[in-house]
Each structure stands twice: as C-alpha cells, then as structure tokens.
C-alpha cells in the first residue's frame, strides 16, 4: 500500500512539475493561450497557485531575490514528500520482510528439529541477525539463510541407535521394603548398566528414576548392551541386590538419522526415532529386547532375533530372548 502511495505521489509530482513549469516554456511563443494545450496548462497553473499560495505564505517565505518563487517551492515540497514517502515505504517493507524472515525461521526450526539452545540454533540465530541487519531483507536473502543453515544442519545429522530400558514393576518392588535397601539396589543397578554402556561406547544417556534412554553409534552396540544388561541381572539378583524382588527389564531399540551435536543433552532431543525406541520398550516382554526389524536385518546376529506379529508405530518388531534363561 505504501509503495502504491509512493507511486501515486511520484506521478502527482511529475504532473505538478509539468503544470507549473510548462507554461514558462510557452511564454516564448506568440499568443500561447490561443492554443488548447498551453491554455489548459495556464489555467491549471493559475488554479493551483491560487489555492496553494495563500496557505504557503502562512508558513514559509516565497519571495527570493525579489521574485515570487511559490511554484518552485511547491515543486520542491512535492519532491521532498515523495522521497520521504518512498523511504517510509522501504523501511516498512524491510521491517515486514524481517518479521517474515523470523517467522519462517521459527517454522523451519520446528520442521528440521533444531533444538532451542543447541549450537546449531545459536549459529542460525547469528545468521538471522546478520541478515536482519542488512538494508535489503527479501525472499532471496531468506533462502540464502536457510541454505547456509541447512548445510550446517546436515553436518549434525547422524545415524545412531537408541536403547530404552525400564525396570519392570519398579513401584511394586519398593512396596514393603526397607528404603535404604531399595536405594542401594537401584544405585547398584544403575552402576551395572552404566558399566555395560561404557564398554559398548555409549554416546549419551538420559535417566529417569527407574529407566534410561541411551544413544549409541551402532545398532549392534545398542542391541548388545540390552542383551548384556539382561544377562548380567542373573548374578545381580543372586549376589548383589538386598531386596526380595528380582530385577527384570524391558528393552526397546530403534535407529535412524537424528540431528544433534555433542553439547545437546539427550533429554532435550525430541525425535520420532527416539519415540519408537521408547514404544518398543513399552511393548517388550520382561527380560527381552524388542527391536524394529528393519534396522537389524543387515546385522550378522540376525538369527538371534525372532520375528513377531507385533507392529509398533508402523514397524514390524523382532525380539531377542536369553536362551540360557
């Protein structure tokens, strides 16, 4: 709208220049008012000056070097107003583009899974501020910012595997037990799990009171960690724990491409790959590892898993059970 107004003012200013200065050229001709076009210009000039000069005299002096220069002053004012309106329109457009840039960036963050506070988020924010500080903020600039950030985002994309483990019936295990014994048992259980994770090269972990989500570089490491925990519970239950109830766990595994950097806490990462691992764990039987079949098909130890009829989040599931149990 402002650019439309600026265009109209430009046309009006041009017309004003023609009307006010045109007659000055025709005075060089004989009897210019006898011709239609000059006569119309003279009439228009006289009309504009008769309406505007009295108002103009109230606010600014119009006599320069002994002559009335109202026409030149009107033209100058019209040019100033036109330039000013153009500057306002440009500033408004730039501000609008900046708002759209920020809004689009927020939507893009959500779509690509860029987590608030992550290193990638900070880099995107820096790039956005640089773009916003420029005089020209347009769609091309927006696309450039996204392209640069997409390149950075791709460097954070990693194929990783997630193992979710939860203690079966943990609330019931604690009922009627000595609190000190329960605290000791769960602390020792956590130490056991963390030792196994470290041995398999765990990348990140996020603990709940009785469960854990762990990230590994390879599917084999995630699956084997779950197996190792289940196998280790035999000795743990017989020789370590103090409470009556035995520890049993459910394990779920999934893998896929996830965007994160080394400084991003696992608990702040929200991704469907992680959600599926958690759902696998919830649907697993005690002391089993339930895994999306598609991610273990390339593994050498595929024969250790049994295909099931379960379909979880659209993925066929396979299960591992300890044959020695």
From TrEMBL:
Domain of life: Bacteria
Keywords per UniProt: Membrane, Transmembrane, Transmembrane helix
Membrane-spanning segments: 72-89
Alphabetical list of Gene3D superfamilies matching this protein: Nucleotide cyclase
Keyword Membrane: yes
Descriptive protein name: Uncharacterized protein
Source organism of the structure: Bradyrhizobium lablabi
